[in-house]
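Hey, quick one: can you model this chain's 3D structure?
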Amino acid sequence: MDTDDLLDRACRLDVTFCDDLKARLPAIAEDIIDSCSDGVCYTHIDAEPIHSEGYVVDMVGKFRELLFPGYYTREKLDPVNLRYTLGRTVTELYDLLAEQVSHTIRHDCLRYDQPCSDCDERGQKIALEVMETIPEIRRILATDVQAAFEGDPAAKSHDEIIFSYPGIYALTIYRMAHKLYELGVPLLPRSMTEHAHSVTGIDIHPGATIGERFVIDHGTGVVIGETTEIGHNVRIYQGVTLGALSLPKGAGEKLRGRKRHPTIEDDVIIYSGATILGGDTLIGTRSVIGGNVWITHSVPPDTTVLLEEPRLVYKQAVTTASAD
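Sure thing. Here's the predicted structure for all 324 residues.
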C-alpha cells in the first residue's frame, strides 16, 4: 500500500471517529433539555423575552453618542447633519430603551407573580423620563471630564480623556444606569454597569450616589457598593474598595436595602489599594486616605490617614571566593 492510500485510509478513520462522537450529541442535548425543568438550575424559557447583553451594548452605544456627540458616531457629525443625526439617534434609543424596560418589568411581574403594572406604558414613560435627563447628565459628565483634565498632567486634551479614560467610560454608563435605578427599573441598570465593569475593571453599582467632578484615576479594580454616597470633587485611584463589612450567613435579606457602604464627603482623595468598609463609616470633608489602608471607622474632616512607613531591609548578596 503506497503513501497516498495510507493517508486516505487515515482520513477516513478520522471521519468515522468524529461521526461516532457526534452521534452522542442528541443524547447530551436531551439531558440538557431535561435539566431545564428540574427546578434546580436557572433558566429563562418563556414566550416573554428578557433583555440580553446585545441590547445592553446597543443602548450603551447610543447613550454615548448622545452624551458626547461627535465622539462615538461612525459618520461625520457637522452643523449641517447635526439635527438629523441626533434626532435619529434619540428616536432609536427611545424605542430600544422603552422595549427593554418593558421586558424587564414584565419579567418580574410574571416570574414573581406581581400585580400588573401596565408594562408597555410604564416602559415608554420611563424611557421618556430618562431621555429628558440627558442634557443634565451631559452637564455633570462635563464636570467629571474637566476634573480629570485638571488633575492629570498626563492628559493632553479633553478629547483624550473622553476617548481613552476608563473612568469616564464607567461613569458615563453609571450615570445613565443610576437614573434607571432611581425609577425602579429592575435588572437592566445592573446589566449596564456590569458591562462597564467587564470593559474597564471598574465596578460601580447603579444604586450608589455620586456627586459632580468625580474622578477615577486609572481605575482597574475599583469597587463602589450599592449604598455608597460620594460627594463633590472626590478623586479615587485604582484598587479602591468602598464596600460592606462581611455579613453572617442569612443576613442578606435582613440587610437588603439598608445602608451598608461608606459615605465619602466633598473634596476627599483616596489613594490606590485603600479599603473603606461599612455603612456607618464616614470620611470627612477634605480628608486624604493613603494607599493600602484598611478603614472601618469614621474619619474626621481635614484628616490624613497613612500607614506607618515600612522599614526597608537591604541584604548584600554573599559570594563565595573561588579557590586558587
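One thing worth noting: The chain has a mean pLDDT of 88.
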